Amino acid sequence: MASLDPVLDKDGVRLTVDDAIATVTLTNPAKRNAQSPAMWRTLAEAGRSLPGSVRVVVLRGEGKSFSAGLDRQMFTPEGIEGEKSFVDLARGSDAELDAAIAEFQEGFTWWRQSDIVSIAAVQGHAIGAGFQLALACDLRVVADDVQFAMRETSLGLVPDLTGTHPLVSLVGYARALEICATGRFVLAEEAVNTGLANLAVPLDQLDATVTDLAAALLAAPRDAVIETKALLRGASDRSYEAQRAAERQSQARRLRDRAGLGE
């Protein structure tokens, strides 16, 4: 029997599971869901904690903002209690710094795994790390008050939480460069028009719209969705002929499974 008791609830992240749908909620609205290394580690733990029954993962943020980005205390010499500040990290060796950033990225990498479809429900500010967390998901539904921005370059840094690949894939190199280098806001209409968002709706309709989308995703057989997702994700790396072959191979598997002849 499904339970909505939290599977995980710490460091500003709560994971609940209702049968085939899991919800990951950022739970620090007083700080506009500012992000920290502890949050990133817990996001990674949430991915590892998903039961095998889960097919759709919804990511949302409590309060007026989805996530206003990195907790700026990480830039101060004292940092966040229990964490190395960025100043301390910068003093480490290249290997140590690379390992630290790789660990941070783990909270952003599982959202596109083949056996789930992830949906970010985004309202208000989604800045820097918040923008990249939304980009980590397969799909984005935004409220009409959304404000995306990639502010890392303005701080003398680069986006390093896996957001650059999906951003370029969605909007193209030139627009991605302009968004990152200027740090400007991308609002709801532009987000939909450029492919950053699948849908934009009034704020009071955001939750219901995401619920309807999740239900529509669950209506198709799981294996067919997994095969289709793999086909689409690999399409940009294949030639036209290679994609045709991949389609044939995937369809052969599906037909054999439907006929009860699968391996």
Structural features, described:
By secondary structure, the protein is of the alpha/beta class. Helices cover 43% and strands 18% of the residues. The chain contains ten helices and ten strands. It has a seven-stranded mixed beta sheet, sandwiched between helices. Strands 6-8-9 form a three-stranded mixed beta sheet. A hairpin with a 2-residue loop joins strand 1 (3-10) and strand 2 (13-18). Helix 1 crosses helix 3 (94-109) and helix 5 (164-171) packs across helix 6. The longest helix has 19 residues, at 240-258. The protein is globular and about 65 Å long. It starts with a strand and ends in a 5-residue tail after the last helix.
